[in-house]
């Protein structure tokens, strides 16, 4: 009889461990039902104090039991190294994420513990590039539950967070149609229109300081709303009076925290006041989707495909699905591209020799009078590709995402000598991989030439080594599998083609029209120091002084 409470604790612990659920009722039953039942069955006198004390004792014992198990050799991940606080609770990692420096934290953990690190009780971070195809490839591991937390919902996550691989691929089909090469041609005009608007805006600020990071943020947000919903935002023209850009930034902070603690995100989703910016941003996305539905299809925007308007025999998906996927397009497409654009310009302004070379290539294909936004030359602009790739390598807009999870009720996964037990989440951090000297020589140097050497377009001997090189003799390492900016495999970034088209167009247009230099008094070291990783990374403001080029 004395062992009965311990038995109840063990049953509670095992039920929690094996049966994942977001149901508050079941959680409450497991947390409070057992001690109450036990007390009612055994106590001689039932008072509120007795019940409270029973619940308290039960909860403390349950927590201790869970902690002991997680730290013990009985835990299936016990052989993987990691800090004790990570092994004990996911809350530690979630708090690290709140500081926005998760990318550096993971990199430091890998430096200390090796390529496979336990970053949560049931979570591994993997930095071994050779494992990427097996984890993210066609027969890889399904997505994790993290987006339930970020989107504060137990049901219907956006496409990026669907755990059932078959369902995910079905949901991805309209995206793939809406972002296929044929569809991209439709968006040329939209990119061109917004790029021209950006150029005019910057022309008005000729000779003054322009805050490029903010401009690119507004630009990409307006463009994504055009592209996803056929319009709905004019941040470049009106600024941000409704604070949508702020909400997106603040919302992502909370979203990143709940990305780690998905069940807590679902709980907080029931208390809107606590996560106001995130809730308000989600409501804003809903308004855009509703307005687009009322307007109907006037052109082939992404909504046209997500709403299956291109397949008249199909019925529209549920409204909530359209809202969630619309928000995904805006969040996934605006912060990422603006972050990449800001990094490209930061890199050009801190590497004058690269700037000169890229300027020469832009001037060759876009001399004065050439249409600003024509995409026909992009294919041949090899140095432009190299510069963009290098910016994406050094400053990946998504620094730590690509989370997968071996389902709790599926068999574990064997990849070579690695065994990943059921219920384990796996993170593959692009930042740590792309700055690993085993994957790229001079990993912390901005050296676009590496991409041209790797593709055989120039010889190693003909490429000036990066300024970080102490000698011309070194082993050239270039492992493109480790280039994870857009992730890998059938669940990678579906918007890659659109993003690159947008980035190339803006870079060419701005370099054709303006010359840039860094704002006086701004310390370039601030750039890396102030980057924040909240699912998508936020970039510093990047103040620049721009002048109209006389030849353009
Ligand atoms: C430089 C710009 C961009 C970068 C670096 C980027 C990066 C990524 C990454 C790392 C993922 C995670 C994939 C995974 O879970 O393995 C992703 C997913 C996704 N991205 Fe992008 N992205 C960019 C631009 C865009 C744009 C412009 C769009 C929309 C037009 C977009 C839409 C999506 C969607 C819908 C997913 C989910 C794909 C899926 O789950 O199947 N992204 N992106």
TrEMBL record:
Pfam families attached to this UniProt entry: p450
Coiled coil ranges: none
Keyword Transmembrane: yes
Entry's transmembrane regions: 21-40, 46-69
Entry keywords, A to Z: Heme, Iron, Membrane, Metal-binding, Monooxygenase, Oxidoreductase, Transmembrane, Transmembrane helix
UniProt cofactor(s): heme
Binding site for heme: 493
Domain of life, source organism: Eukaryota
Family listed: Belongs to the cytochrome P450 family.
Protein name stated in the entry: High nitrogen upregulated cytochrome P450 monooxygenase 2
Species, as recorded: Lentinus brumalis
């Amino acid at each position: 009889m004395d062992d009965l409470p311990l038995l109840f604790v063990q049953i509670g612990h095992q039920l929690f461990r094996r049966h994942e659920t977001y149901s508050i009722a079941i959680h409450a039953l497991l947390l409070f039902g057992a001690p109450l039942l036990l007390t009612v069955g055994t106590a001689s006198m039932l008072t509120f104090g007795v019940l409270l004390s029973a619940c308290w004792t039960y909860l403390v014992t349950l927590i201790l039991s869970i902690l002991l198990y997680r730290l013990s050799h009985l835990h299936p991940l016990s052989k993987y190294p990691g800090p004790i606080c990570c092994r004990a609770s996911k809350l530690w990692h979630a708090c690290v994420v709140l500081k926005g420096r998760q990318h550096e934290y993971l990199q430091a953990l890998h430096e200390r513990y090796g390529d496979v690190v336990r970053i949560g009780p049931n979570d591994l971070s993997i930095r071994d590039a050779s494992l990427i195809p097996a984890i993210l490839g066609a027969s890889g591991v399904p997505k994790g539950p993290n987006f339930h937390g970020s989107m504060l919902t137990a049901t219907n996550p956006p496409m990026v967070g669907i755990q059932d691989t078959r369902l995910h691929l079905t949901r991805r089909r309209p995206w793939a149609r809406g972002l296929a090469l044929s569809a991209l041609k439709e968006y040329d005009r939209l990119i061109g229109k917004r790029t021209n608007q950006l150029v005019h805006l910057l022309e008005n600020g000729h000779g003054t300081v322009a805050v490029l990071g903010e401009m690119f943020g507004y630009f990409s947000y307006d463009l994504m709303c055009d592209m996803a919903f056929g319009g709905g935002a004019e941040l470049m023209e009106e600024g941000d009076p409704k604070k949508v850009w702020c909400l997106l930034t603040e919302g992502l902070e909370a979203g990143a925290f709940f990305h780690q603690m998905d069940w807590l995100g679902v709980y907080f989703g029931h208390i809107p006041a606590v996560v106001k910016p995130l809730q308000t941003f989600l409501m804003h996305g809903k308004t855009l989707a509703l307005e687009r539905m009322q307007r109907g299809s006037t052109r082939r925007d992404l909504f046209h495909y997500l709403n299956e308007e291109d397949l008249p025999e199909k019925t529209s998906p549920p409204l909530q699905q359209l809202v969630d996927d619309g928000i995904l397009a805006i969040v996934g497409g605006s912060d990422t591209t603006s972050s990449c654009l800001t990094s490209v310009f930061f890199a050009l302004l801190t590497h004058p020799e690269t700037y000169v070379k890229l300027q020469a290539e832009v001037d060759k294909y876009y001399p004065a009078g050439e249409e600003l936004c024509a995409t026909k030359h992009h294919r041949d602009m090899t140095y432009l590709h190299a510069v963009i790739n290098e910016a994406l390598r050094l400053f990946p807009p998504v620094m730590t995402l690509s989370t997968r999870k071996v389902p709790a009720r599926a068999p574990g996964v064997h990849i070579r000598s690695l065994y990943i037990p059921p219920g384990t989440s796996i993170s593959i951090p692009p930042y740590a991989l792309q700055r690993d000297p085993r994957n790229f020589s001079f990993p912390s140097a901005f050296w676009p030439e590496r991409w041209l050497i790797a593709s055989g377009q120039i010889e190693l001997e003909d490429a000036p080594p990066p300024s970080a090189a102490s000698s011309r003799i070194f082993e050239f390492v270039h492992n493109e599998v480790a280039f994870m900016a857009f992730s890998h495999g059938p669940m990678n970034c579906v918007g890659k083609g659109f993003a690159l088209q947008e980035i190339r167009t803006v870079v060419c247009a701005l370099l054709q029209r303006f010359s840039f230099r860094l704002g006086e008094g701004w310390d370039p070291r601030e750039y890396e120091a102030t980057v924040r990783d909240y699912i998508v990374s936020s970039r510093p403001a990047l103040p620049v002084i721009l002048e109209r080029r006389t030849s353009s």
